[in-house]
Q: What sequence folds into this?
């Protein structure tokens, strides 16, 4: 009778979760059984212990870390902590829990937080800080972030002038999945502008296809893929500056730019010539789970599917995810070939204790050493850490995502719904766009979201 | 003893210690109670019997309940007092009428259908050769976690288009297609979708009704049945004149319990539609505001609304309690 | 099964007249009744059966075709079950199994005993404020578990028992009480007053009436409630997560199973297999406690 609290935000949260653990298995040619922990020997690689000696003797101390990352993606995380444990003699206690996002708030409010939490949304970091239980990041971490990350990342978790959470991983959401072989056979080319994308879609329609497939069903987080669509188009039709104003509510949610962006999405998703390949009509978008939504590409009933890099983990075992494989992704093009806005997400490490061993471990997690150790251990994981050596990214989709993230010409923007207040970002925005796809018009939808914005 | 036990023997020891401690407390209560007799002693015995329960409920449920009511008068962050504004929000929202209507559907349909099915089934299989097996089948849905139940019903309600060689993976749509119809997007059609979700709840709760009512049926004295038998009553008369009156108080109990459980249920709605397409209920809104939207005040107000909605059920029980006293 | 009542608990009176039971069975097992029972059973089992079939099908087949396709085109795999038993992570399921049992046993026994005492007081002792108190206890069923989490956790933090089994035993016991008292009260009221009065005339106190008269008669009710309390505790994830902190030392098996679906909830082929692994224990408990659903314990007494 009392059900399980599958976290409300969780699935949406995809947000930050990058570690799409199965990808290696999918991508590695023919080797369908290898799991994400392959290459365990890397963890034995000795690291420079000097940065951690200044925290004193922390041998035998324990640091608890609480995350929403569960099996099988947790293994490379746990493995990546080993060099630190070897250096300092401290123990890291990892706790993965699918309902992390509600539980961490409950625990923090009740005064029983973990030492560290891996938080996938800046909005949630803000909520945690407002409980008064979070502590600011130590100087060493702040220095590392200044050194290895674009300053935009630091701003996401700087609250009232205090910096709380170092970024950990990142993901790219501006991707369109497609079948390389279909493109080759039908003579399609990867579009480089929004107009070309439209032209490509029309060409596919002319070839008798329903080009796009989409699905937004995700339990109580139903609707989140639509918020990603709208953010991606807001970035492209209005530009990054307007995007920032929109996210920070400096322009109303129902003003001209967001309206244009949502209508631009509608030109694809509410167009019954374009959707819903292999899945039904426009309305079927509302009931198709996001996990299933891209699968019709494999059956040849759909050609294009806009979804983040972590979607790679969704293809059944044995699917080859590569430029010359069964399925791959291209960058959702900008308005023209010169602009390159990238919608992405990431996760942040927030501390609730400032004991030396906790600080030492935070420092390790914010370093380039950790990023490279982690990259070697896992697949389906990338980071925007500038110290990350691209050579350590092994599978094609990670290389693609890593390349986009670290491209100096790209303009990165964080998933807006993760930064908006919870009442919008994980409630009204989802609910209203879901109503929109089942028939509600654009002005009503945006007015309703605007009304939900906390005063 | 109050530390975290980490090895299996330690855990077992801790459990035994807890059970012993509990037995000691119970023993003490019974020992003291045993020393009182007579009318005045009765009172003391009753209070002793109720003492641990009242303590635990006071701390574990009454205090949080009162705190929730108190919080319902505060804003989202729980800091500023805003009077009845949260309640105003609930009743001014356009969607709220749908939510209330759905809640009424749930509470009216689920308890009666689930109880009726449980009762009929319990009677039908009572004393049959396969009773135990047959009851297990109905009981099974109860023992499945909600996460798995979500997957189970996905295989029933899922929609796939009538397109090329796409195959149905939902049972109902497959049946429709086999019968020559077109597949339907079952979970979008309102208010049909609400009833489809209610079916899931009935599927789960019938096992509860069946088990409790079966225990009640077993308690009907054999000699009553035999007497009726000798009078030559048929199966229907048996049901109307003997079984039903005998288990009637239990039927009230089962109806009430399922009714309250239905008021509180949100998992089914949350995992299957997320409350979209006009399927939300009060409990789901409560959960959404508390955990998704982080609006503590409004969440508390919705929980308080649940407390209010239970009043008719309490009133119904007062009546049947009075009736049974009068008997 | 229930037609063979255990000799130990059955008053000799019943054993002497098996005819009543026999007649009843004969009358009730008309073909229509049997048909109705079978239809209900099939309807109820079909969805679960679909999941069972699915748990043996390969991931790709589950996602593209209906489970009934299995019968025309059987493809069988044990991969999903291997996945549940830690094919890749080497998860120690046994450890979580033990945790679940350790959590369940006291969480069933404690509220059951406390509720039996309280229900007795409500049913058979007169004291001021009885009805109002009873209605309050019963109405507490409506308090959603979610609103109790933070206040209770604050208390556990203060008395420093977070992360231990104690928090779970106390919480589960508390949450079970309103329903347990309500159910048991109903069954106690059904016991003929004559029995209690006779015992009182014989000079028995409330303690001995409770043990000698009530408990034996209440067996089916206690078994029924015991089954459900066990089930709820066994399937609980919320209480375990919040109060025990989810660490491996105390985490129940449900946590492991919930995490099976993967970080993004895509692996429901594993979920379907996991569901059947976790269902074994509650169903076993149900079957075991069935033997306490004994007919005829009240035989020979005058109702009323």
A:
């Amino acid at each position: 009778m009392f059900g399980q609290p599958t976290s409300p935000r969780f699935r949406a949260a995809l947000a930050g979760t990058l570690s799409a653990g199965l990808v290696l298995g999918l991508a590695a040619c023919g080797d369908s059984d290898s799991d994400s922990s392959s290459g365990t020997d890397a963890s034995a690689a000795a690291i420079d212990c000097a940065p951690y000696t200044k925290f004193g003797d922390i041998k035998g101390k324990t640091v608890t870390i609480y995350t929403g990352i569960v099996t099988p993606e947790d293994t490379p995380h746990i493995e990546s902590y080993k060099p630190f444990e070897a250096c300092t003699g401290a123990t890291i206690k990892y706790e993965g829990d699918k309902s992390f996002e509600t539980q961490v708030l409950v625990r923090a409010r009740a005064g029983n937080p973990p030492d560290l939490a891996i938080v996938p949304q800046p909005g949630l970091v803000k909520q945690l800080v407002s409980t008064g239980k979070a502590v600011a990041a130590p100087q060493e971490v702040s220095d590392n972030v200044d050194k290895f990350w674009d300053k935009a990342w630091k701003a996401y978790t700087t609250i009232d002038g205090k910096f709380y959470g170092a970024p950990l991983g990142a993901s790219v959401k501006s991707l369109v999945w497609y079948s390389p072989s279909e493109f080759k056979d039908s003579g399609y080319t990867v579009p480089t502008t929004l107009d070309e994308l439209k032209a490509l879609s029309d060409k596919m329609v002319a070839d008798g296809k329903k080009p796009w497939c989409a699905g937004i069903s995700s339990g109580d987080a139903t609707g989140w893929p639509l918020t990603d669509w709208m953010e991606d188009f807001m970035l492209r039709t209005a530009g990054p500056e307007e995007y920032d104003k929109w996210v920070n509510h400096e322009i109303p949610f129902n003003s001209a730019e967001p309206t244009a962006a949502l209508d631009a999405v509608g030109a694809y998703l509410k167009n019954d010539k374009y959707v819903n390949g292999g899945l039904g009509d426009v309305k079927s978008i509302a009931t198709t789970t996001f996990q299933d939504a891209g699968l019709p590409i494999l059956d040849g009933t759909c050609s294009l599917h806009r979804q983040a890099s972590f979607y790679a983990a969704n293809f059944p075992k044995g699917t080859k995810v590569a430029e010359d494989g069964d399925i791959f992704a291209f960058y959702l093009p900008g308005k023209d070939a010169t602009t390159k806005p990238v919608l992405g997400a990431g996760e942040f490490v927030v501390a609730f204790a400032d004991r030396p061993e906790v600080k030492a471990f935070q420092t390790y997690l914010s370093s380039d050493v950790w990023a490279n150790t982690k990259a070697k251990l896992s697949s389906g994981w990338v980071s925007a850490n500038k110290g990350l050596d691209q050579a350590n990214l092994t599978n094609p989709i990670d290389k693609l995502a890593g390349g986009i993230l670290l491209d100096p010409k790209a303009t990165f923007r964080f998933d807006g719904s993760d930064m908006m207040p919870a009442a919008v970002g994980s409630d009204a925005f989802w609910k209203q766009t879901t109503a929109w796809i089942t028939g509600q018009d654009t002005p009503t939808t945006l007015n309703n979201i605007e009304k939900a914005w906390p005063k | 003893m109050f530390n975290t036990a980490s090895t299996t023997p330690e855990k077992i020891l801790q459990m035994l210690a807890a059970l012993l401690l509990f037995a000691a407390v119970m023993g003490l209560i019974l020992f003291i109670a045993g020393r009182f007799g007579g009318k005045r002693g009765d009172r003391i015995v009753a209070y002793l019997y109720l003492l641990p329960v009242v303590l635990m409920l006071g701390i574990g449920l009454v205090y949080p309940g009162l705190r929730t009511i108190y919080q319902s008068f505060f804003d989202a962050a729980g800091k500023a007092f805003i009077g009845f504004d949260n309640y105003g929000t609930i009743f001014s929202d356009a969607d709220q009428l749908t939510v209330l209507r759905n809640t009424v559907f749930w509470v009216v349909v689920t308890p009666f259908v689930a109880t009726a099915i449980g009762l009929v089934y319990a009677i039908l299989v009572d004393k049959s050769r396969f009773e135990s097996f047959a009851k297990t089948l109905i009981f099974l849905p109860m023992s499945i976690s909600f996460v798995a139940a979500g997957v189970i019903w996905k295989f029933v309600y899922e929609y796939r288009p009538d397109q090329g060689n796409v195959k149905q993976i939902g049972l109902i749509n497959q049946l429709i297609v086999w019968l020559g119809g077109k597949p339907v997007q079952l979970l979008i059609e309102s208010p049909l979708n609400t009833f489809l979700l209610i079916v899931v709840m009935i599927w789960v709760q019938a096992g509860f009704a069946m088990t409790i009512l079966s225990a009640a049926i077993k308690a009907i004295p054999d000699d009553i049945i035999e007497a009726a038998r000798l009078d030559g009553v048929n199966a229907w008369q048996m049901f109307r004149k003997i079984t039903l009156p005998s288990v009637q108080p239990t039927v009230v109990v089962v109806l009430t319990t399922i009714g309250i459980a239905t008021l509180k249920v949100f998992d089914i709605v949350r995992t299957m539609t997320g409350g979209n397409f006009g399927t939300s209920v009060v409990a789901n809104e409560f959960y959404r505001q508390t955990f998704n939207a982080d609006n503590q005040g409004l969440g508390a107000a919705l929980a308080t609304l649940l407390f209010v909605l239970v009043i008719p059920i309490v009133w119904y029980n007062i009546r049947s309690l009075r009736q049974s006293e009068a008997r | 099964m229930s037609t063979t009542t255990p000799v130990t608990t059955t008053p000799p009176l019943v054993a002497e007249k098996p005819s009543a039971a026999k007649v009843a069975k004969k009358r009730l097992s008309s073909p229509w009744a049997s048909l109705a029972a079978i239809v209900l059973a099939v309807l109820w089992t079909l969805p679960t059966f679909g999941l069972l079939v699915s748990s043996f099908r390969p991931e790709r087949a589950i996602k593209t075709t209906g489970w009934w396709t299995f019968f025309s085109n059987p493809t069988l795999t044990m991969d999903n079950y291997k996945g549940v038993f830690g094919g890749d992570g080497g998860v120690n399921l046994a450890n979580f199994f033990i945790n679940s049992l350790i959590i369940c046993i006291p969480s069933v026994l404690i509220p059951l005993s406390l509720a039996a005492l309280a229900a007795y007081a409500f049913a058979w002792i007169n004291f001021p404020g009885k009805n109002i108190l009873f209605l309050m206890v019963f109405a507490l069923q409506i308090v959603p578990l979610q609103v109790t989490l933070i206040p209770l956790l604050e208390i556990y933090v203060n008395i420093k028992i977070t992360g231990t089994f104690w928090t779970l035993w106390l919480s589960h016991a508390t949450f079970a009480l309103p329903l347990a008292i309500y159910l048991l009260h109903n069954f106690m009221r059904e016991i003929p007053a004559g029995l209690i009065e006779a015992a009182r005339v014989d000079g028995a106190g409330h303690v001995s009436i409770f043990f000698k008269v009530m408990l034996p008669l209440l067996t089916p009710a206690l078994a029924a409630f015991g089954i459900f309390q066990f089930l709820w505790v066994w399937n609980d994830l919320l209480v375990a997560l919040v109060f025990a902190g989810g660490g491996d030392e105390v985490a129940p098996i449900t946590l492991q199973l919930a995490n099976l679906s993967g970080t993004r909830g895509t692996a429901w082929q594993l979920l379907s297999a996991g569901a059947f692994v976790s269902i074994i224990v509650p169903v076993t408990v149900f079957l075991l406690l069935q033997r306490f659903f004994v007919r005829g314990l009240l035989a020979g007494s005058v109702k009323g």
In short: Confidence is low (pLDDT under 50) at residues 1-44 of chain A. Residues 20 and 380 of chain A are 4 Å apart (CA to CA). Chain A touches chain C through 47 residues (CB under 8 Å).
